[in-house]
Structures are given as C-alpha cells and as structure tokens.
Write a structure and sequence with these properties.
This protein has 255 residues and is of the alpha+beta class. The chain contains four helices and 14 strands. The radius of gyration is 26 Å and the shape is globular.
C-alpha cells in the first residue's frame, strides 16, 4: 500500500511516519432505507397515474422515475456519510469515526477490549465482536470495523503487548497479582469463579467464536470440559491473558 501524506490533525507530529490506512466498512443501511423509501413513493405516484389514466406509458415512466430517484438518493446518502477510517503511524494511531478524530500514541494505551488475534479452524483471524482502546486519560476509543480487521488487530495488539507484557510478567514474578475482569493471575496460577487453577494444571486458554458471542475458555489438563468459560467482552486485555498463560504454564517435555 502506498504511503500517504500526514493528515492535518493536531497531534500527528508526535506519531512519527505514516504507515497504513484502514478504511472502515460503510454502513449501507441508511442508504438502502432512503433508496427504498424514494422508490416506493415514486412507485405509488406511478400507480396513481395508472388508476387515473389507465395508460401503460404513464406506468413505465413512473417506474423509471422511481428507479432513478431511488438510485440518486442512495448515492447521495453514501456520499454524505462521515469518513470512518484508522490511520496507523510509527508511534501511534488516529481513529476517525465521523466525530472529532482521536489521535494517541501507543504508550497512551492502557488496555484493549474486544477482538483478539487467534487461531480458528486452521487460520489466524480477529476473533470477537469489535475492538476498543482504553487510554491512560480514562477515555475509550472505539475502532471501526474494516475489511482488513485481522491485520489491524495484529498491529495494534503487537504494539500493546510490547509495552505491557514485560511489565505484567515482572509484576507476577515479584509476587503481585493482575486482575483482568473476572480472572486474576499471580505467580502460582489463576483465580476465577470456578476456583483456583495452578499453572501446572493449565492446558491452554482458547478464544472461541460462538453464535451467542465469542467466549474465552480456560482448559484444565486432562479435563473433558473447560475449567472456566466467560464472555470475551467481559475480559479486558484478553490478549495479555492469553500470552501470559502461554508463558507461565509448564512446557511439556518430550520423554
């Protein structure tokens, strides 16, 4: 993807060089609704002309006007929808969602909520129902969905983990604990509503897409059912949890 010039937004001078743009998926529902309403109105006008004059020419003309009006309204609505995109820079990102753009550095990120990059059915994908970034100043920025959501989540997640994973590991190693929603981690294991699970008994942590919503599932070694399952949306920094669990559980050694 070709590099583009830096947008004229206050604060971009601290974000470094421009890297990549992700255009959001447009919401076609307003355009479709307006188009259908326009087409329906014109079709009713054509029907009225037919009933009054019983002329096929009037009907054909009315239907053509209906179609043209519907297409015109649809194009106008789509053209006037707010620009929604994500701009990634060397040291941060900008989110434009039709309101005031949110520009922040990677170091401003406190936690990621929602989507996690994970493996599902043999391929890596962005798993979850949306992504938002909690900032150190207390603000939360929602990230619009894009066709390349996997790449976007990958980049943002890597930047976040590079900053927070070493600090989290140090906290646990020094005897501290880390609360991530309903799950608490310490140097000895995990604590949740289902009890306590030592790291030695942890099989893995899975992110599982389901019809009712994506869940985070913790599996105990040798167990047929998950030890603990919770909605992914209720676990802040789920990517951090998955990475810590993978590092702290004992690695199986070949006999």
């Amino acid at each position: 993807m070709a590099l583009q010039s830096t947008p004229k937004i206050v604060g971009t001078e601290v974000l470094g060089g421009f890297c990549r743009e992700f255009s959001a998926v447009g919401d076609v529902r307003p355009a479709m609704l307006m188009s259908l309403l326009g087409t329906l109105c014109c079709a009713l006008m054509a029907l009225d002309q037919f009933l009054k004059h019983s002329s096929g020419a009037h009907v054909v003309g009315g239907l053509l006007v209906a179609v043209a009006t519907g297409l015109g309204i649809s194009m106008w609505v789509r053209a006037n929808q707010p620009n929604r995109r994500v701009l990634l820079y060397e040291h941060g990102m900008i989110v434009e969602d039709g309101r005031a753009p949110a520009a922040f550095q990677w170091s401003d990120m406190q936690a990621l909520h929602g989507m996690v990059l994970g493996e599902w059915r043999g391929a890596y994908a962005a798993l979850g129902e949306g992504l938002s970034v909690a900032l150190n100043n207390g603000r939360t920025v929602g990230v619009p969905l894009t066709p390349d959501m996997r790449d976007l989540v990958l980049i943002v997640q890597e930047k976040h983990l590079a900053l927070h994973l070493p600090a989290a590991e140090a906290t646990l190693a020094n005897g501290g604990s880390l609360a991530l929603g309903p799950i608490t981690l310490d140097k000895d294991g995990l604590q949740a509503a289902s009890g306590r699970l030592p790291w030695a008994d942890l099989e893995r942590v899975d992110v599982v897409p389901e019809v009712s919503g994506t869940s985070l599932s913790i599996l105990r070694r040798g167990a047929a059912v998950p030890w603990f399952t919770v909605s992914l949306a209720s676990v802040p920094d789920a990517a951090l949890l998955v990475q810590l669990a993978a590092r702290l559980r004992p690695v199986d050694k070949d006999p």
